[in-house]
Amino acid sequence: MAEVAPAPAAAAPAKAPKKKAAAKPKKAGPSVGELIVKAVSASKERSGVSLAALKKSLAAGGYDVEKNNSRVKLAVKSLVTKGTLVQTKGTGASGSFKLNKKPRCG
After folding, report:
1. Number of domains the chain is built from
2. I want to staple 95 with a disulfide (CB 3.0 to 4.6 A). Which of 59, 83, 89, 100 is the partner?
3. 73-82, Cβ contacts within 8 angstroms, sequence gap of 24 or more
4. Is residue 53 part of a domain?
5. What CATH number is attached to the domain comprising 39?
6. What positions does the domain H15 occupy (predicted)?
7. pLDDT per residue as tens digits for the range 41-79
8. Sheet hosting strand 85-89, strand order edge to edge
9. pLDDT above 80 (res 10)
């Protein structure tokens, strides 16, 4: 019977992280993709913005790039596949990116 009592105590800490996860969406501002599009559109570079420069601008805007590095890479890849960004150099999530002017037309 003594072994049964600690089980509910162990279940209580397991519920606490679920509450934290539910609280996170309240903080949510613009998505990573929106931040990336803003950073690229603010750039004056003709050849596009490199991934390193993109990360620097996101970090300057208060985004934790080191913690969410994989999210940044996934967002860049998805924006390229959607056609929002065009990759001017490199492959995958590395290289340089600029805004696509054509998707609005067709």
Report:
1. 1
2. 89
3. 75/31, 75/32, 75/33, 75/36, 76/36, 76/51, 78/33, 79/33, 79/36, 79/37
4. yes
5. 1.10.10.10
6. 28-101
7. 999 888 999 999 999 999 999 999 999 999 999 999 999
8. 49-50, 96-99, 85-89
9. no
